[in-house]
Amino acid sequence: MVELMGRAIGMGWPVLLMLVGLLLYFQVSISDPVKKKRASFQTLIGILCAFLALMAISNYTHNFEGESRLLPVSLVMITIMSFVMGLYFPNISALMKIGGFMFFVAAALSGYGNWLPQVEGGFPPPVVKLDFQSMSSQQLGDEGEKIIFGGIGQSKTQGAIGKGQCPLCHGFQQGFLSERAPNLYGIPDRAIERLKEPNYHMNNVAARTTEQKEAFPGSGTATNAQEYIAESHACPSCFVVTGFGVKGSNDGTSPMPKIHKPPISLTIGELAAVDTWMYTREGKEAPAYDVIATSYEKFIPEADRPAAGGEEEKGAGGNILADGSEPTDKLFMKAGCPACHTIPGIQDAVGKVGPLLMEGSNAPNRLKDPTYKGKAKSPKEYITESILNPSAYVVKDFPDNQMPKDFGVRLTGGALNKIVDYLAQLKEGQPLPPKE
Amino acid sequence: MGRLFNQMTRGKKKLLAVSALMVMGGLLLLPIFLSVTAVASGGGAPAGGPPADVVAAQKAGEEGEAEKVEMGRDIYYKTEGPAIGDGAPVTADNETFYPRYNFESRVLLWVANQQHLYYGSFVLAVPIFCMCIEFAGMVSKDKAMAKKYDQLAYDFIKISLTAYSLTAILGGILIFTFLTLYPAFFGYLSSIFRPVMHIYALTFVAESGVLYIYYYGWDKMREGVLKWVHLSMSVILNVIGTVLMFLANSWIAFMMSPAGVDEQGRYLGNIWHVIHTALWNPLNVHRILGNMAFGGGVVAAYAAYRFLSSKTDEERAHYDWMGYIAMSLGVAFLIPLPFAGYWLMREVYAYRQQMGITLMGGLLAWLFIIQATMIGILFLTTNYYLWQALGRMTGGERFQKYIKYLVFILVCGLLVFITPHTIVMTPAELKAMGGQQHPVLGNYGVMSAKNGGINAIIMTTIISFIWYQRGNRVPTVSWAKFGNIFMGCFFVIAQLNNIWLACYGYFIPANVRIGLSVPQVAGTLSCLFLMTPLNLAMLKNGRQLGPIRWGQIPPRSQYAIIMLATAFTWMMGLMGYIRSSVRLFWHVNEVMRDNSPWAYTHTIGFAANVISFNVLFFWISIMFVFWLGTLGAKKIPVPAQAGQPVPSPQPATGH
User: CA Rg, chain B, in Å?
Assistant: First the structure.
């Protein structure tokens, strides 16, 4: 609070000074004691309101990128200021009361938004080049589970979702009610049965009544179970399971996107991993990688096959080191900090190239250092600045330009906040902060 | 010349004025007409129509020189067309594609866009109100009432006109911001929409011209044929405004559900496909209704401000009436808005199911919980205003003792409505809670129960409105008793049906449960469309218990109006954010990827803070505009004694 008041005065002292000057001026310029008293009182109220407004602005600017949950406090301050002015300045009473009420409504709604659980949509996961072809069935299956559910062992967690986004619509557990798309439990056995259904029209694409008759001209239909799974991924509208078509299309169009196309864009290797998991998790022997790959090549023309680590590597997603969803130790490890810094509490962080990051103690001292020329006003701002712009202040006895300067584009906002939060809690002589 | 004009007969003057207006209107519309026909016929460069490369490509295609022109397949319409240009740029995270200015570019663009949208919505909505109110005044047989309506319409357009120039300035700022912060993205969009960009500009010019003629010609065209000409101009004004909005909507619809381009984002020569994407029409309808509700809210807030700062009873009476009309219009358009939203969402699901799920059951689902809360707040506030308004009617007090029961139903309905069923959580939260559904609350928030909650709220609002209609009147028709019993039974049955279906939903599978919304909504709509007219029929020639004492309403009722206006504005910002964020890391969905450092989705709290900033920025600026407007207003000629009853509102200002 004291810090906030200090910042407010630092920011708006000319305004406050002007109002104090006005107060003094009224003392000498108004002779009528009643008028003088009223003018002095109103000016004092004005000073109080101006101070409240400055505190509100200071809190807003200070916490905009950091503790955004504190921002509604600014709105509450302005609400109070507006109502106080509405009470004591009759000429603008209606305007100030209305304004105050609007700030109150906005503060309430903003506060509500900040009170709810905070979910941040990270960048699309970085693409890691994997050699699917040389993996064992078990490894392929694990990768498949990661693609579908976001991690190994996540298939039993309700709501878990990975790059493939399959659980958004499909159920995967036996007996699980799957309303948007068929439950995929038992698909290795069921696939062959699908081929026999009358509206599948195996080897007779012309007879199909679906929106798309075959994946591409000449691709034909599936002739075995694996090909059926491949066709379902590459051309969902070639055959639609009864009851799961787009409403009004009479099961002629599937709502499912082509999995090898944006926005999901799985490569043939990734699709092979997904398919392998669907076999192995039911204890069934999965077809060999080459068999699965060939089945997809039948339905995805060469020009349409996404390259592993292709486009994504050019984008932000490919450059991102960490997105903030990682546990604390892993987050620091992925960001690369332990290579150069000693960070208390972080596993293997014993680097000596950069300074010890006891920032809860260090940062306040650095801000007071007369040689400090950065823009930070608080320890957290200082830590953020040190990560994003390492040359803003170089700790004595350490060389400049050693630390990379591109963390601003290689860490997501969530990752940066998490690093800053942890470092800011490290204080000499105090217990280590909790880790996620 | 002046003398000659003075010597002309009145009839000739009128004829001359009408001719001059028609010529002027024609001149304003001519460039648009020429451009549209040029685009439609596929030629007309450079003043209109597709660029020369498109024409050349089309010709080449027609002449069978397929080997020279690469053909592309429309990603939505699946039609073939000559691929023009290099397609959507593949951007990278560097200053060339995404210049940096020490602040998050996305938030800057968000603010610029939202402000332009707020003002744009307002200035497009108000002329529609004016048209309706002016028409009501013209057909009214009561001369005093006709004059009041005319004055009200004029007051509305006066407010809008002050905001109009600010809208244009904000439009300029938006383009500048877009161009500066996202040059590659803007470049791509403008290359796609190039064939119609000049039409957009010409439409804006025509809109401005017609608006100024409409406003400044008010006094000159106040009687006879000229009044009809004046009204016709408001129709033209609204047609142009609507076209303008549809063109602007086509950009955002293209970004969400692109069409008219191939997979690489190359334009295929058919601008209609680019404009008429899967989500364009649902967005258009949703925005028209949203604009009207928002415009009503802003005008009502203006009236509330003038009411609260009024010095005389006449002023208070006028602005009380104005606020009531504006709020009623706003709420009238609020009621169909959820249905338009439902259509939009259905089209989103039809276009891309995972987009719909991201909205309703995924990353953005919590924002819909906020939306549900806000809808509840809007209806609660509307009811509160109507109950306050009952106080200015002799006879209104007989309903006061029943209001507590309505409050009970409304609160219960709201609590059920905002209870979530499945919620988005982190794995740690999932583990802590033992599943995706809360052990207690998870049992309650199913769709049929939520539908039951909101339908109970809407039905209660209808009851409040019917009571308001009956405030100072008693039905005297011979079948009044039967009518009352019928009406009471109808509401009870509709409410019981609603509650029964809400409970029944727990015992049937989710896919069947969805179907229950139809009979629930049908019950509510029946109450609205059958009971309200029935009530009016019963009140025809009814016994008056006393006049409506316009202006004699507690000031807190005006705060209810301000609450409505602020909540409308906030909800508009929220829904705009949701619509825009659903593209996730795509500038143009599945065509042009966002590779900027801001390609992630913010937390709900951050979004709520920016929305609040936008809302307050808009209100501070428009309050300033209102205040500017009052500087030019004439003083009220006849002051009245405070505290005396005022039978009916009088115009506050002349023009």
Answer: 27
Is the CB of A106 less than 8 angstroms away from the CB of B597? no
Flag whether A430 is in a domain. Answer: no
Residue A93 lies in a domain: yes
Answer yes or no: do A362 and A409 share one domain.
yes
- Within its chain, how far is the Cα of B520 from the centroid? 25
Asked whether the beta carbons of residue B370 and residue A113 sit closer than 8 angstroms, the reply is: yes
- Chain A closest CA to B76's CA: distance in Å? 12
Window 280-339 of B, Cβ < 8 Å to A: 301, 304-305, 308-309
Q: What is the mean pLDDT of residues A220-237?
A: 90
User: Closest to B601 (Cβ–Cβ): which among A120, A157, A159?
Assistant: A120
Alpha helices of A30-92 — where are they, by DSSP H?
Answer: 33-63, 71-88
Instruction: Give contacts of A 194-213 with B, CB under 8 A.
Output: none
Banded model confidence at residue B251, pLDDT cuts 50, 70, 90: very high
Residues A93, A173 within the same domain: no
B306-348 pLDDT, tens digit each:
898 888 998 899 899 989 988 888 888 888 887 788 888 888 8
With respect to residue A26, please indicate whether it lies within any of the assigned structural domains.
yes
Of the candidates B309, B596, B607, the beta carbon closest to that of A94 is on B309
Say yes or no: B629 contacts chain A, CB-CB below 8 A.
Answer: no
Question: Do A16 and A99 reside in the same domain of the chain?
Answer: yes
pLDDT of residue B111: 94
Find the helix packing angle between B224-256 and B280-308, rounded to 10°. Answer: 120
pLDDT bucket at A369, cuts 50 / 70 / 90: confident
Clarify whether residues A49 and A108 are in a common domain.
yes
Confidence category of residue B381, pLDDT binned at 50, 70, 90: very high
A122 falls within a domain: no
**b/e per residue, B41-72, with b = 16+ CB within 10 A?**
ebebeeebbbbeebbebbeebeeeeeeebeeb
Distance CA(B57)–CA(B51), nearest Å, equals 10
Please say which residue of A115, A149, A175 terminates a domain.
Answer: A115
Give, for B128, the enclosing helix (H) or strand (E).
helix B105-139
Tell me whether B70 touches chain A (CB under 8 Å). Answer: no
Characterize the bridge pairing of strands B543-544 and B586-588.
unpaired
- B194 close to B39: Cβ distance less than 8 angstroms: no
Instruction: Pick the residue of B76, B77, B90, B93 with the most A CBs within 10 A to test the interface with A by mutation.
Output: B93
Per-residue pLDDT tens over the stretch B154-169: 888 887 887 888 888 9
Give how many domains chain A has, as a whole number.
3
Together in a domain, A229 and A332: no
Question: Which stretches of A67-216 are DSSP H helices?
Answer: 71-88, 93-115, 137-149, 187-196
A226 close to A287: Cβ distance less than 8 angstroms: yes
Residues A140, A285: one domain?
yes
pLDDT for position B43: 45
Boundaries of domain holding A300 = 132-314
What's the gap in Å between the CA of A219 and the closest CA on chain B? 19
Across all residues in chain B, what is the average pLDDT?
82
The reported pLDDT for the residue numbered B44 is 39
On whether both A188 and A108 belong to a single domain, the answer is no
Instruction: Scan residues 80-109 of A and list those with Cβ closer than 8 Å to B.
Output: 93-95, 97-99, 101-103, 105-107, 109
Residue of B358, B369, B600 for testing the chain A interface, max A β-carbons within 10 Å: B600
Residue B227 and residue B137 in contact, taking contact as beta carbons nearer than 8 Å? no
Chain A, 140 to 179: residues with Cβ < 8 Å from chain B are 154, 157-160, 165, 168-169, 177, 179
- Based on the fold, state whether residues A188 and A308 are members of the same structural domain: yes
With 0.80 as the threshold, say if the pTM is over it. Answer: no
Q: Give A119's contacts in chain B (Cβ within 8 Å).
A: 363, 366, 424-426, 603-604
Residue B434 identity (one-letter amino acid): G
Single out the residue in A314, A343, A365 at which a domain terminates: A314
The nearest CA of chain B is from the CA of A297 a distance in Å of: 20
